[in-house]
Amino acid sequence: MVKKKNSTFSLMFRMMMRSIKQNVLQFLAIIAIGAIAITLFVGLIANADVFESQVNSVYSQGNLADLWVTTPIDQVDSNDLNGIKRLLQEGEEIEGRSYITSSSGNNSIYLCVVHEMPTISKPYGELEVSEENTNDYFLYVDYDLKKRDENVSSLYSLGDDFSFSFDISQFNGNENVALFDGYVKEGKSNIFRADKVTFKGRVTGFMNHPENITRAAYNGSVVVMSDKMFKKALLDVVEENFEKEQTEMLMSVISFYLGFNDLNAPYYTNPNQFVIKTNPGRDIDALKKQITEYFESKSNNNLYLITKRENMPFYTALNDDVRQARQFTFVFPLVFFLVAILVILTTISQLVLKDRTQIGTLKAIGVSKWQIIFNYIMLTVVLVFTGTMIGEIIGPLIVPGILGQKYLILYSLPQANYQFPILNGLLAAIVFALCASLVTYLVCRRETSLKPSESMRPPVSHLKTRTPIKKEKAKVSFFDLKMAMRNIRMNFNKSLMTVMGILGCTALLVCGFGIENTITYGINHDMKAFHNDDISLTFNNTKEREYLIEDFSKIEGIDVPKCDFTITTSTTLYVTDGPQMESHFYLIPDYNNYLDVSVAIDEVAISQKVAKQTGAKEGDMINFTFNSKKLSCKVGVVYEAFFYNGIVIHEGNPVLSHIGSPGYLSAAIKVKDGYDIKKIKTELESLTYVASASTQEDWKANIQDVMSGILVMTNAIKIFAILLGIVVLYNLTLMNFKQKNRDIATLKVLGFTLRETMSSLLIESLTLTFAGVAIGMALGYPFMLAVMETNIVALVHYLYIIYPSTFIYAFLLTYVLDCVINLLLSYRIRRVKMIESLKSVE
């Protein structure tokens, strides 16, 4: 019976399956490195898609405005709403609101007083409301503000009073204030002599608001209140402190000077800010110019700010994070793609070299070189496709969950949904497969171009002839080193690829540890330079210096003369015609004990972060707000800081002279030697006006919490770097053993022990590892810069540094991995069959 002749396709398929079976461990390495690369790439794209989707969902549900037009609260013009409306196109919307910079407890808030529930920049999502909440009587507090300060959480419960304070300094210098003294109730005071007055509204609901999307500690929170409740809050505080018979008269005077309407008017407040929703494709800059021209045409130009969505601080921070999430997609995975290509190159090269005789036989029986090349390309594509599919599934499930923790810490976002970027994953798979196929083709082309007889012979070594090793013992002791150097020279391309693989692993390790170093250094730097006190206090409301000194003197252990009283609040910073940013405002004593910033009394100091984002530099005039006043001052110093970013100004600065004596909102406390800091902290917390008390350990813990998202990313980098190192070293070490079967068998025949045989292979591996580690450590710093520049956190400014210990850790970790893998695979030396390994076609 004649056997049926097998087709070429069937023959090549069986050959491919046999190759997979014989080299399963090396092929698993290709699958693993491919899966890791695609997991990172697709996972990071999914992370960016999920984050952008969450942000767009907030803006869409909250119908975020495209343009904000603001006038001073005391220069309101009731005709502005209609004047701006005439400039809008059909379908565009505008709403007015009274936008008042206020505070509640220790939190800065932006009080938005509206006539009825807004439809532009409105509360969105599920609202938690009380029974008394109506369309014209409400006070909505943001969920994040409700949770931010546990010390005053009772203020933020449904049905309870919500205390808020705002500046009335433009009124308290008026001569009419003195007239109020005669109408003050017994035991009460003329509250309008103060810079700020505290009012109370009733919380009727909790909300999410699109302008409250940023959780950063220095960002004020929008609180939405109805005009009706605001009028009641003002009326209540007047009735509480003044005789009831004079209430109407007093309210009329107050309303006149604060820019509000008469009590009998349909609405009490007049809007000083207008939010505009434009049609898609509208030229915002052209509309902005028209609005500016409208205000300039008025006899009294009361325009304060006109801001596009792109220039709003909360939007800028979010937009930067979305952009950085996209950029990060192409920074980190690139290393893994390059290493994956190197692994494929070395593995296929070794496979083709081992299959020389088989390739020659196939060509001798009539199989074309293109069929042989196609067989190896298909083998590569199968391996790459398998790894790609694993990464396509795992990436979107794992990576967004890890990196998404950073966004949940910084922003108030809706629930994330899994997203699988199919198109991007498909394109990545095609590009990966094409690159792998090209590498395979280049490897196979040379071998398949040889004649069958040439392919059936072992490759000729081109190593230069050297003097034979003599048999003296003194020379034999260097045999393992010489053999290792010979192997490196003979397989230079493979050695170079090994170095590049180790280089990538080390660079990632240095990057991961370097990020931790940068964060640790930044925290320690600021604690030493700006928080060198023992306890930091913040107050629910402003307090006078004398009042604070009296209270602190009663607590044993406080070094009162070394206590500093300060004001820390939020402000908007910008240079003329430059971008705006929201940051901290620090008012410090003229001779402070703890702040390591030296600036002239008539100048201000700004942090490097402020300088970078606003474009301000030393000698420039920078604009900022304090107590609802627009101020300008010369920048004297740009200081270095990690989290203590903002503007620093002395309380004796001339630009503050017309504001009056400040009430303090915070204090830096020095504890005398020998006293328990925690005990004194507890005593300070018992004071009714103290909102929070933080030791240095508390500050460090808070910053660590904010940076936890970055630390999660750092740990991910280190884990992936170790996985990369394991895969690369395992694959190359395994390939090294297989390629040197003949050499190992020869050494065994000559009587060399297992230790002596293994030492030559270990020296070769460690030498290549050393070269890769050295170059990788040099590239670790620039790679860390690339990674961190795509992961900026709004709260901090990175002070880049890598400690020497990081290089030691990276060096040792890579070497330990190399040694462990070599030791684990050394058992293969025992399994080398001497007779089969020494067979030759000759």
UniProtKB/TrEMBL annotation:
Keywords: Cell membrane, Membrane, Transmembrane, Transmembrane helix
GO biological process: transmembrane transport
Cellular localization per UniProt: Cell membrane
Topology in membrane: Multi-pass membrane protein
GO CC terms, sorted: plasma membrane
Positions of transmembrane segments: 330-353, 373-398, 418-444, 495-515, 710-732, 761-781, 801-825
Broad class of where this protein is predominantly found: membrane
CDD domains: TM_PBP2
ABC3 transporter permease C-terminal domain sequence ranges: 330-443, 719-832
Pfam families referenced in this protein's UniProt entry, alphabetically: FtsX (PF02687)
Protein name (database record): ABC transporter permease
